[in-house]
Amino acid sequence: MTTTMRKDWDTYFMDIAYMVSTRSRCPRRHVGALLVQGKKLLGTAYNGAPMGVPDCSEAGCMIAEQYEKVIVDGSEQMVKKQRCIRTIHAEQNLLLFTDRNDREGSTVYVTDQPCWTCANMLANSGVVEIVYHRPYKKDSDKVAAMMEHKGIVFRQLQHYHPPAESVMDEVRE
Q1: Which pTM was predicted?
Q2: Catalytic residue at 91?
Q3: Which of 15, 47, 75, 121 is the most buried (most CB within 10 A)?
């Protein structure tokens, strides 16, 4: 008799988040998010244009440039950020399509570390834990600091490997 190893809960839920991300039509990055309470899956979402609106694969990306002052090695520097403003992020869609009562005390699994805007929204959503796989370096330090301040468990699955069928051919920053 052959016994197969059972996946741990983090791997199980992150696999689902990656499979949800395959619904995204964003040419830059596919992101999936889940709302989990205990071991119960309460909702899924992915990034994309609002329902009924042409998405980036049909109408092109709407890139906005922003500048942010950061401290690097003790000196101030201006860093340019590019963001697509046509797309609603997976975390935002998850919050739009789940109930506040379900979010209280829950965990969010997301393929990518939340950006600053999504982190702010999640910090006020009632969730107590955020688990992600891929880092988002543009906002990483300030998001981690805010989550620590809020007392939200914020952790990266560093040794996780997503299902092969869920990985984009090319990921752009």
Answers
A1: 0.87
A2: yes
A3: 47
